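FW: tagging you since you asked about this chain on Friday. Here's the raw sequence from the shared folder, copied in full. Didn't touch anything.
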Amino acid sequence: MFHCHIFEHEDHGMMGQFVVVEEDTPAEEIYIKSDLNTHNEAHNH
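HL: got it, structure written out here
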């Protein structure tokens, strides 16, 4: 997790998570559909 302490910066890429994986792990194995939809539903974008 990385973040800025100014809440409005969340929508400008200043808040997020990262995942540490084994080298050569395909990206499609990392992302989970429910995680990708969480941000949009929470902010009604």
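FW: The CA atoms of residues 2 and 12 lie 13 Å apart.
HL: agreed, and The first strand starts at residue 2 and ends at 3.
FW: great, closing this out.
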